[in-house]
């Protein structure tokens, strides 16, 4: 029997490309298996919270930096992790911003924050089996690769 309609939970998240002298800021998080995962600062939006507000809040917690003048870069949208218990419809916003302050993460999951030269960013990416970490899906990194090359599109179906 085919399902004509189904309800998927919506996952909304925002991440920010923070750039300084040809380097991109990445956060280091420890996964359940003890490995280190590198990702963009940002994260899930709370119910009723805009993606922009989520970006500002999450960057502050994960890096200690205050971001201002948020500028929209890309929207990633589509079904993710189909057929798993983490199946969802994703709305991910990507922004750039002006920032100030000192690197001082307060998120207990963040073990480090690191400025990485553009040329080294893709070498840090590890793709893992979903549903462990959605951000390890290669499609999530295509917009970052494009951004680093100066070729970001405004919309990415995922």
Question: Notable features of this structure?
Answer:
158 residues; alpha+beta; Nucleoside Triphosphate Pyrophosphohydrolase; five-stranded mixed sheet; 20% helix; 41% strand; globular; Nudix hydrolase domain-containing protein; NUDIX_hydrolase_dom
Structure description:
Helices cover 20% and strands 41% of the residues. The chain is an alpha+beta fold. The chain has one domain: Nucleoside Triphosphate Pyrophosphohydrolase, CATH 3.90.79. A 5-stranded mixed sheet has the order 5-1-7-6-9, with helices on both faces. Strands 2, 3, 4 and 8 form a 4-stranded antiparallel sheet that branches. A hairpin with a 5-residue loop joins strand 3 and strand 4. It starts with 9 loop residues before the first strand and ends with a strand. 27% of the residues are buried. The mean pLDDT is 87.
Q: Give the CATH topology.
A: Nucleoside Triphosphate Pyrophosphohydrolase
* Strand order within the widest beta sheet: 5-1-7-6-9
Helix content class: 10-25%
From the alpha carbons, calculate the radius of gyration and give it in angstroms: 16 Å
CATH class: Alpha Beta
Mean pLDDT: 87
Specify the structural class: alpha+beta
Q: Can you tell me the residue ranges where pLDDT is under 50 for at least 5 consecutive residues? A: none
User: How much of the sequence is in beta strands?
Assistant: 35-45%
Q: Order of helices and strands, N to C?
A: EEEEEHEEEHHE
Describe the global form. globular
Tally of alpha and pi helices: 3
Assembly type of the shown chains? single chain
Spatial gap, N to C terminus: 26 Å
Cofactor: Mg(2+)
Protein name: Nudix hydrolase domain-containing protein
Keywords: Hydrolase
Organism: Deinococcus aluminii
């Amino acid at each position: 029997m085919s399902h004509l309609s189904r309800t998927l939970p919506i996952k909304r998240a925002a991440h920010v490309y923070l750039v300084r002298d040809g380097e991109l800021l990445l956060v280091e998080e420890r996964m359940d298996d003890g490995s280190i995962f590198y990702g963009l600062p940002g994260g899930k939006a709370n119910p009723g919270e805009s993606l922009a507000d989520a970006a500002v809040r999450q960057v502050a917690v994960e890096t200690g930096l205050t971001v201002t003048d948020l500028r929209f870069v890309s929207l990633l949208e589509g079904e993710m992790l189909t057929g798993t218990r983490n199946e969802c419809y994703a709305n991910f916003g990507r922004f750039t911003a002006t920032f100030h302050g000192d690197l001082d993460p307060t998120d207990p999951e963040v073990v480090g924050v690191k400025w990485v030269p553009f040329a080294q960013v893709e070498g840090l990416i590890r793709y893992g089996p979903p549903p462990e970490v959605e951000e390890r899906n290669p499609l999530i990194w295509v917009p970052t690769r494009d951004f680093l090359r100066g070729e970001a599109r405004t919309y990415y179906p995922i």
